[in-house]
């Protein structure tokens, strides 16, 4: 195997025996075969709703920490082969190796990983009825291009098109979420626990959460969000459920300890699931694109899922063990921030707010990510953080306060909600008669997996300059390609907190 799609890839060059994530070489081979088959499917000209769903879900299943169940990976590949009417002998890495030049391969990997991120976002929109033929057409086009010999210029153009299409995909998801559940509103979420047994919902899928809340009403079971589900508490449609009682725990990489202490069943709805400890394996359920071999999986039947097995298990479990008891403010997606636009603009004009820093993206488990906590803590008191994604767990419990009623940590939601940051930045630019690069706005982005690659390409396609990227650079980006990113977009690598504040012009 050779896998270097995530930030934790061994030595920054690639996992070759087993993945840091826990996947085996055998599972990596199955994922490569699935991706290669999807590439061949796209190259064969397959289209239509069934093909589009298969491509999106198949790519999503190979995203980091999503599916560790080889049987389900094989089943997805078999469906793709059925659509093709044959069984191609193909491997993803063989297709990517058509070009022996390292920079060309790097550009192809960047495109593939951006497509994986796009597939994840599109999957979430599609679950709620969102469709955009321009997005699915691009996914098919870009996948097919991976099987061809391309010049560097052609691959750069495809990556930029991936970014532009990514913006459209994120807008589609934003519309699907808010059209179904309403626009998020500022909400205080408790992180303590009650006396009832609970169900913990992790991942990103709001429809799964909705069905669990519906089915647990009146059962005496409390429902808690975890990780990227925290922002769900801010949607108006979920506020009618008194059984949604708060958030438990933090980012995905702490789940082994947090799932153990939760005591009740856990439902993993998407990516950000790890191979479980034996202590809670029997309490873990997966659904959607998520999967772990030997762990109970809940499929949809006619668009609905039956969570009765989860509920029955919860009734016999002890209440969660409290791990903290705080209040977190969430719900500052673009509609809520734009409602405060006059206050925000006034604070900037008066000098009360001197700078905004976008600290969005993914968290991870390595010690070096304490950098983001230190960076947030070291920011001047007149600086506001704009965040989305689980990177916020590095600083959202620091108690950074507010500036005249404007929170110093403006939480726009999940990584799925990065579109809100674009809308907010564009609104500020319009208010001050400039473009995004002319604002008192800096970008210090943490990446971990492929959804972050898509968001980075989206920002670059919008012309955003001088993005700080860390905690270390992607292993699939060669020195030659990094030089292009530096020369064209001003991409910078993380250094020390003090050095980076100087580089980002933060006083």
Task: Write a concise synopsis of the structure shown.
With 507 residues, the protein is α/β, with parallel strands linked by helices. It is 43% helix and 13% strand.
Based on CA atoms alone, the radius of gyration comes out at 22 Å
Q: Quickly give the structural class.
A: alpha/beta
As laid out across the biggest beta sheet, the strand order is 5-4-3-6-7-9
Biggest beta sheet summary: 6 strands, parallel
State the CATH class of the largest domain. Alpha Beta
Secondary structure: elements and pairs:
Elements: H1 25-43, H2 49-61, E1 67-68, H3 70-84, H4 92-96, H5 102-127, H6 133-146, H7 152-181, E2 187-190, E3 198-202, H8 206-216, E4 222-225, E5 244-247, H9 255-262, E6 266-268, E7 284-287, E8 291-292, E9 296-298, E10 300-301, E11 304-305, H10 308-315, E12 327-330, H11 334-339, H12 341-350, E13 355-358, H13 370-378, E14 383-387, E15 402-403, E16 406-407, E17 409-411, H14 418-431, E18 441-446, H15 450-461, E19 467-470, H16 479-489, E20 492-493, H17 497-503
Parallel strand pairs: 1-8, 3-4, 3-6, 4-5, 6-7, 7-9, 13-14, 13-18, 14-17, 18-19, 19-20
Antiparallel strand pairs: 2-12, 10-11, 15-16
Helix pairs in contact: 1-2, 1-3, 1-6, 2-3, 2-5, 5-6, 5-7, 5-15, 6-7, 7-15
Protein architecture, described:
The chain is an alpha/beta fold and 507 residues long. It folds into three domains: 10-181, Substrate Binding Domain Of Dnak, Chain:A, Domain 2 (Up-down Bundle), CATH 1.20.1270; 187-315, Rossmann fold (3-Layer(aba) Sandwich), CATH 3.40.50; 331-503, Rossmann fold, CATH 3.40.50. The protein is built from 17 helices and 20 strands. It has helices at residues 25-43, 49-61, 70-84, 92-96, 102-127, 133-146, 152-181, 206-216, 255-262, 308-315, 334-339, 341-350, 370-378, 418-431, 450-461, 479-489, 497-503; strands at residues 67-68, 187-190, 198-202, 222-225, 244-247, 266-268, 284-287, 291-292, 296-298, 300-301, 304-305, 327-330, 355-358, 383-387, 402-403, 406-407, 409-411, 441-446, 467-470, 492-493. The strands form six sheets. Strands 5-4-3-6-7-9 form a six-stranded parallel sheet. A six-stranded parallel sheet has the order 17-14-13-18-19-20, with helices on one face. Strand 10 and strand 11 form a beta hairpin.
């Amino acid at each position: 195997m050779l896998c270097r799609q995530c930030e934790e890839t061994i030595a920054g060059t690639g996992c070759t025996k087993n993945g840091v994530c826990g996947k085996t070489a055998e599972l990596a081979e199955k994922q490569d075969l699935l991706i290669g088959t999807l590439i061949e499917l796209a190259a064969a000209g397959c289209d239509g709703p069934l093909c589009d769903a298969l491509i999106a879900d198949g790519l999503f299943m190979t995203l980091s920490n999503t599916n560790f169940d080889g049987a389900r990976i094989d089943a997805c590949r078999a469906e793709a082969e059925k659509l093709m009417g044959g069984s191609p002998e193909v491997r993803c890495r063989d297709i990517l190796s058509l070009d022996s030049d390292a920079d060309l391969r790097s550009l192809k990997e960047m495109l593939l990983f951006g497509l994986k991120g796009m597939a994840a976002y599109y999957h979430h929109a599609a679950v709620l009825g969102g469709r955009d033929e321009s997005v699915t057409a691009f996914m098919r086009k870009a996948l097919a291009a991976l099987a061809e010999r391309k010049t560097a210029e052609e691959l750069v153009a495809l990556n930029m098109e991936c970014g532009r299409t990514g913006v459209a995909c994120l807008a589609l998801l934003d519309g699907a979420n808010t059209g179904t559940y309403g626009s998020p509103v500022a909400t205080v979420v408790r992180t303590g626990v009650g006396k009832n047994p609970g169900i913990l919902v992790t991942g990103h899928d709001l429809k799964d959460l909705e069905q669990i809340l519906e089915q647990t009403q009146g059962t005496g079971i409390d429902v808690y969000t975890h990780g990227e589900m925290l922002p769900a508490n801010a949607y108006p449609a979920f506020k009618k459920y008194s059984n949604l009682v708060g958030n438990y725990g933090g980012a995905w990489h702490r789940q082994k300890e947090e799932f153990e202490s939760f005591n009740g069943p856990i439902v993993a709805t998407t990516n950000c699931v790890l191979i479980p400890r034996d202590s809670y394996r029997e309490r873990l359920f997966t659904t959607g694109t998520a999967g772990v071999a030997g762990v109970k999986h809940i499929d949809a039947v006619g668009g609905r899922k039956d969570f009765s097995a989860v509920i029955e298990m919860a009734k016999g479990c002890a209440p969660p063990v409290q791990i903290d008891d705080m209040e977190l403010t969430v719900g500052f997606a673009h509609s809520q921030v734009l409602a405060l636009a006059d206050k925000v603009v006034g604070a900037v004009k008066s000098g009360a707010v001197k700078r905004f820093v976008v600290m969005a993206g993914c968290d991870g488990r390595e010690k070096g990510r304490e950098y983001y906590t230190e960076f947030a803590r070291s920011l001047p008191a007149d600086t506001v953080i704009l965040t989305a994604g689980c990177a916020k767990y590095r600083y959202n419990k620091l108690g950074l306060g507010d500036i005249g009623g404007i929170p110093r940590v403006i939480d726009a939601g999940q990584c799925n909600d990065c579109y809100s940051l674009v809308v907010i930045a564009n609104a500020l630019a319009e208010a001050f008669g400039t473009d995004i690069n002319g604002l008192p706005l800096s970008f210090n982005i943490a990446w971990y997996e492929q959804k972050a690659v898509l968001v980075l390409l989206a920002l670059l396609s919008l012309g955003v300059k001088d993005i700080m990227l860390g905690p270390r650079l992607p292993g699939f980006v060669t020195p030659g390609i990094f030089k292009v990113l530096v020369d064209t977009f001003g991409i910078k690598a993380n250094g020390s907190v003090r050095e980076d504040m100087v580089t980002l012009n933060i006083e």
